[in-house]
Specification:
Layout (H helix, E strand, L loop, with lengths): L2 E8 L2 H4 L8 E4 L10 E6 L11 E5 L4 E4 L10 E3 L4 E6 L17 H15 L19 E7 L12 E7 L1 H4 L8 E7 L11
Antiparallel strand pairs: 1-6, 1-7, 2-3, 3-4, 4-5, 8-9, 8-10
Length: 199
């Protein structure tokens, strides 16, 4: 494990309630079924002022989510950098995991192998790994993607709609996420026809 020593102090629940989403903290690096005796860099999942007696929701930089009670002596608590504090071991990042979805026009086995080969040449054969592979045929059809308020009243007009993307393949929609409080509306693509009279 790659760790570094960081000087930090443990926060009380009152101190955590004053933190915002941008404040860097440290929480236990242990995950389900994998106890680790060190900490991981993290951020609050929602502002500390939203704390109402339950546990604080935190998210580590490694994508792990947890709920922590800072004042619980049986838990490792929430820590923040402080030169006057004590040394703790903090887990470091070994790299970045990319989940790639590639669209290969008229893709076949040879073209996919060429992509993998180019990636291995660029980053190293031991770095690029194929964990799972799914080959999906993409239909030659496009859709229009809109966003509209998730709790909006259903009506015929589309005043509240926001055009998020045009000319998008249906298979790409499943990899996108709507904005907070909005939901996607997918419709068959309609070409925009400019009917402005010309002379």
């Amino acid at each position: 494990m790659n760790t570094e020593k960081v000087t930090a102090r443990r926060l009380t629940a009152a101190e955590v309630s004053e933190l915002g989403l941008q404040d860097g903290i440290f929480v236990s690096a242990g995950t389900d079924g994998l106890p680790l005796d060190c900490y991981a860099p993290a951020f609050l999942a929602e502002p500390g002022k939203n704390f109402e007696g339950g546990a604080f929701a935190v998210r580590t930089i490694f994508g792990e989510e947890a709920h922590v009670l800072p004042d619980n002596a049986e838990e490792s608590g929430i820590w923040i950098s402080d030169k006057a504090g004590e040394e703790i071991e903090v887990l470091q990042s070994a790299g970045v995991l990319l989940n790639l979805v590639l669209f290969v026009p008229a893709g076949n086995k040879d073209s996919l192998e060429s992509l993998y080969s180019a990636a291995r040449d660029a980053f190293g054969a031991g770095i690029v790994q194929r964990w799972s592979e799914e080959t999906v045929a993409v239909p030659d059809v496009k859709v229009d993607l809109y966003e509209e308020p998730a709790r909006g009243r259903k009506s015929a007009n589309s005043q509240n709609r926001d055009r998020r993307a045009l000319d998008i393949y249906p298979t790409r929609v499943r990899f996108l996420e709507p904005s907070d409080g909005w939901r996607f509306v997918v419709e068959p693509h309609k070409e925009i026809v400019d009917e402005t009279p010309t002379i």
